[in-house]
Design a protein that fits this description.
The chain is of the alpha/beta class. The protein is 30% helix and 28% strand. It comes from Rufibacter sediminis.
Length: 224
C-alpha cells in the first residue's frame, strides 16, 4: 500500500492512501481528533465507572490512539489492556517520517513511540506496568473475539464509503457481542446507515459533538 505523510491543520501528521483517496486521520487535526473522539468521549467516559479497561482498537495505523491512551494511564493511574488490529503494519521508515517529536510535546511520551511500533505481533507486550499492548495482524472480518471480552472499542477503520465491508450489520453485531454489558464503542463516523447498524445490533446510540471540522461523532453503549 502506497502511503504519503501529510501534515494536518493542528500541526500533527497523518498518512494519505492514494489508492483509497483517504487519510488515516482528519485533515483538520489528527491529534485533536484522537484526543476528542477516542480519549475524551471513549476512555475518559469509561474511566468514570472503572479503573481498569480492556480496550479493542480497530486500526492501529500510526499508533497515535495507543500513544495517547498510554499517556492517559501515566497521569490518571488507570490500567489499560490494549488489543489492536492492523492488517497493514507500517514500516519503521514510515513511522520515522511521522515526526511525532514535532507535535507530541511530552518528552517522556516520545520514549514510547518506538516500543509501541516495535512490539511483537500476536502476543501481549508490557509497555509500562499499567499498559499492556497486543497487536494482531489481521482484518476485522477474520477476527473472532470472545463474548464480553472488552469494555471499550475505538472503531477507527477507514470511512464507510472507502471500506464498506467493515461497516456492516454483521460487523457491529460482532462488536456488540464482544463488549461487556455497559461497554462502549466510539468512532468519528456519524452516518445514518452506520447508526442504524448499531441500533440493529442492540446498542444505545448517542450523537455527540464532533472534533474540529466535524459536526458530530457517535458513541454506542451496550445496555447492562
Amino acid at each position: 500500500m502506497n502511503l504519503e505523510v501529510r501534515q494536518t491543520k493542528d500541526g500533527s501528521t497523518t498518512l494519505f492512501v492514494p489508492e483509497l483517496n483517504e487519510h488515516y486521520h482528519s485533515v483538520h487535526g489528527a491529534l485533536q481528533e484522537s484526543l476528542h473522539v477516542f480519549i475524551k468521549m471513549g476512555l475518559e467516559a469509561t474511566l468514570e465507572r472503572q479503573t481498569t479497561v480492556r480496550l479493542l482498537e480497530i486500526g492501529f495505523g500510526t499508533g497515535l490512539n495507543a500513544l495517547l491512551t498510554l499517556q492517559h494511564t501515566l497521569v490518571s493511574g488507570a490500567t489499560v489492556v490494549y488489543d489492536t488490529l492492523e492488517k497493514y503494519p507500517l514500516s519503521p521508515e514510515v513511522v520515522a517520517q511521522l515526526q511525532f517529536d514535532k507535535f507530541i510535546l511530552n518528552p517522556e511520551l516520545l520514549d514510547y513511540v518506538g516500543p509501541l511500533h516495535a512490539a511483537a505481533w500476536e502476543q501481549p507486550t508490557t509497555i509500562t506496568p499499567r499498559f499492556t499492548l497486543r497487536k494482531l495482524e489481521t482484518d476485522l472480518e477474520a477476527f473472532a473475539p470472545a463474548p464480553d471480552s472488552y469494555d471499550l472499542i475505538y472503531f477507527d477503520a477507514f470511512a464507510p464509503e472507502k471500506q464498506p465491508h467493515l461497516w456492516t450489520d454483521a460487523i457491529f453485531q460482532k462488536m456488540y457481542d464482544c463488549l461487556a454489558p455497559g461497554g462502549t464503542l466510539v468512532t468519528y463516523c456519524a452516518k445514518g446507515s452506520f447508526k442504524r447498524s448499531l441500533k440493529a445490533a442492540g446498542f444505545t446510540v448517542e450523537a455527540l459533538p464532533g472534533p474540529p471540522g466535524k459536526r458530530e461523532m457517535t458513541r454506542g453503549v451496550k445496555p447492562h
